[in-house]
Amino acid sequence: MVRTSFFNNLDFMPGEDKSNAIEPDDIGKIIIDILSTRSGSVIEEINLSPLKKVIKFL
Q1: Domain boundaries, the chain
Q2: Whole-model pTM above 0.85?
Q3: Exposure pattern of 4-39 as b/e (b: 16+ CB <10 Å)?
């Protein structure tokens, strides 16, 4: 789960602790790394997941 406004209209969201969601800046940094990879490299899969998966129900 990425901590974004996606959850604004839902009845749940990631838990309060930072380890319960990925921050949008983290996604941006990874995209920059991918775009900066030297030519000829093949990136087949990237999996991101928060350390903890706690959901807070509203």
Answers
A1: 5-40+50-57
A2: no
A3: eeebeeeeebbbeeeebbbeeeeeeeeeeeeeeeee
